[in-house]
Structures are given as C-alpha cells and as structure tokens.
Design a protein that fits this description.
The chain is of the alpha+beta class and 310 residues long. The protein has 3 domains: 3-59, RNA-binding S4 domain (Structural Genomics Hypothetical 15.5 Kd Protein In mrcA-pckA Intergenic Region, Chain A, Roll), CATH 3.10.290; 67-162, 2-Layer Sandwich (Pseudouridine synthase), CATH 3.30.2350; 167-273 and 300-305, Pseudouridine synthase (2-Layer Sandwich), CATH 3.30.2350.10. It has helices spanning 12-17, 25-33, 67-70, 111-122, 150-161, 235-242, 256-264, 296-305; strands spanning 3-5, 10-11, 37-39, 42-43, 50-51, 56-59, 79-83, 87-92, 141-147, 166-174, 181-185, 188-190, 198-200, 203-206, 209-217, 221-228, 272-281, 286-291. Strands 7, 8, 9, 10, 11, 15, 16, 17 and 18 form a 9-stranded mixed sheet that branches. It has a 4-stranded antiparallel sheet with strand order 1-6-3-4. A hairpin with a 4-residue loop joins β17 (272-281) and β18. The protein is globular and about 60 Å long. The N and C termini lie far apart (50 Å). Mean pLDDT is 89; it is low at 63-68.
Length: 310
C-alpha cells in the first residue's frame, strides 16, 4: 500500500498521475472515485481535492504493478548534457516515451529504463517516483531534467510549480505567422471530441501561455523560438496549431498545409525540440542554463525547407 508526502499544492488526481505513481490520470480518478485513496488517513472521493504541502496520500488496493518491478535498467546510450551531485539533464531522443503509460506495449522501453541504467552505473539508489522532474512528449527531443535524490526531486519540482524554470523550445511550423513575436494566452484542456488529445478551451481548460518569436522563415514554414510560461500537456503543439501554424511532422494537431509540407519534404519526425532549460540546481542552489544540440533529423529538415539554423 504505497503512500507519499505532498511537497507543494496540487490537485489530487494530478498528484497521483505524476511521476509514475499511477499509469494515467484516468486510472487515478477511478481509484479516487472507488474510495481507494486516503488523504491524511481519511478517504477522499473528490478528484479535484486541492492538496497542501505536508499532506499524506495513500493508495489502497493498487491494481497496477509497481514501477519498481517493471523498470529494468537498459543502456539507451543517453547523452548527459549536465550533471552535478543533485541532478542531471539528459538529451532525450525522439520516438521514446519518458515513462511507462496506458496504451503502451508490455515491456516497451522508456527513458526511465535508461535513467535506471545511468543510476546503476553511478551506484545511486533508483526510485522511479523521485527521478523525473518533468516530461516531454514521446517524439519531442531535447533537455530532460532528472533528480538524483528525493530531496532534489522536491526542490526541482517546486520550481516547475512556481514557474521559475525557464523552458525554451524550437518549433518548425507550417506557414509564417503574421506577427513576428507574440504571446498565445489560451487555456488548454482535454478535447471534447477525443479524450486522448488536448485543445484550446477543452474540458476544464487550465490557463496556458506561450510566447513565440520567428527566428527564420523558408518555404512556406517558419522556425520559432517558444518560451513556455506554463507546462500543460502538448502545450506548444496545441497553441501553435490554434493560431493556424501546426508543428511540422505532428500527426495529431495538423492542417492541410502542415500535412502537405510534411509529405512534400518527407518529414518523418516531430519538428519540436526542447532547446534550453534554465533552473536552480539544489547543489549549491546555483542557476544552471543547459542547451541541447539540434538532432540531425531536425537539421536535415531545416536544410530541406530552406530555413537557416539558429
């Protein structure tokens, strides 16, 4: 019967779905509704219950296998972009999910399996509940922050909660935005048509802000630098699609133009890259700014569409 202490205010269902505590938010909500979740030893059936720092959350009758039992250390040849005594920043490749989740094939290898390997190499204790500080979509490349200890995990997650982490992405999009620089301020929630996707507004939309700047433009497309002021699921992809400029190579949030360009230039991967991450490391509480080099696949696409590199 696993239990956890809350490190910062958060909705109960979101807390349970975070960092592998459960395989999905849907399963977390089901567990709450079935009275299998207690907060401070009292049953809680409200999925939107707002947790406070120091609350104790207990999950009874867990149906899914513990992640500790399913994560086999696997050498994924991950590149470590930065490392100190408290954390590391990895260069995430495309095509690999960050952690196990609903709908994945049994035994499918994830970045978390690679992290377990890195921890074993360093003789660090590995707890899947206390390593992933944030997530990237399966096909997104770039900077991924990992904590080495439970204390570092709480310290770093607090920065994401208070929005003191600076996240910058590079996105190659269909079309050229009318405004060379602008903020997209639109709530994001689950789509009312497809629960597996997100949309502007959506079900119980939550505030979301993305600022973009056009870095270069080429053949009917543009390379954007995006600053994320919030961290919603699929935020960059949803926001850019909502203004008519979907990310090229995105098979979910598309337009006629993006589909045509993706086919015309033989784009086989999502053109979205978590380029730069700026945060305060728990090791000495020093600010760190880490950048991830563009993957060869994205460089090749930029050359084919005639965009200059940043």
């Amino acid at each position: 019967m696993p239990s956890w202490l809350v490190s910062f205010p958060e909705r109960l269902d979101q807390f349970l779905a975070a960092d592998g505590r459960m395989l999905s938010r849907t399963k977390a909500q089901k567990a709450i509704e079935e009275s299998r979740v207690k907060v401070n030893d009292l049953p809680e059936t409200k999925v939107s219950r707002r947790l406070q720092e120091g609350d104790k959350v207990t999950l009874e009758g867990e149906e899914e296998p513990r992640m500790d039992d399913t994560i086999e250390p696997t050498d994924l040849l991950l590149t470590v972009l930065f490392e100190d005594d408290a954390c590391m920043v990895l260069e995430k490749p495309a095509g690999i999910a960050v952690h196990p989740g609903a709908g994945m094939a049994p035994g499918e290898v994830t970045i978390l399996h690679g992290v377990a390997h890195l921890f074993r190499e360093r003789r660090l204790p590995f707890s899947p509940d206390a390593v992933l500080v944030h997530r990237l979509d399966k096909d997104t490349t770039g900077c991924l922050l990992v904590a080495k200890t439970a204390a570092a995990h709480q310290f770093l997650q607090k920065q994401f909660e208070t929005r003191t982490v600076k996240k910058q992405y590079l996105a190659l999009v269909a079309g050229i935005p009318e405004h060379p620089e602008a903020m997209i301020d639109a709530p994001i929630g689950r789509s009312t048509h497809d629960r597996t996707t997100m949309s502007v507004g959506g079900m119980s939309g939550r505030e979301a802000q993305t600022t973009y700047k056009v870095l270069s433009s080429g053949k009917s497309c543009a390379l954007l630098l995006c600053d994320l002021h919030t961290g919603r699921t699929h935020q960059v992809r949803v926001h850019l699609s909502s203004i008519g400029h979907p990310v090229l190579g995105d098979g979910t949030y598309t337009s006629q133009l993006s589909d045509r360009l993706t086919q015309e230039f033989d784009i086989r991967t999502l053109c979205l890259h978590a380029w730069k991450l700026t945060f305060t490391s728990p090791d000495g509480e020093r600010e760190r700014a880490v950048t991830a080099p563009l993957p060869p696949s994205l460089i090749s696409v930029l050359e084919r569409v005639g965009n200059s590199l940043p």
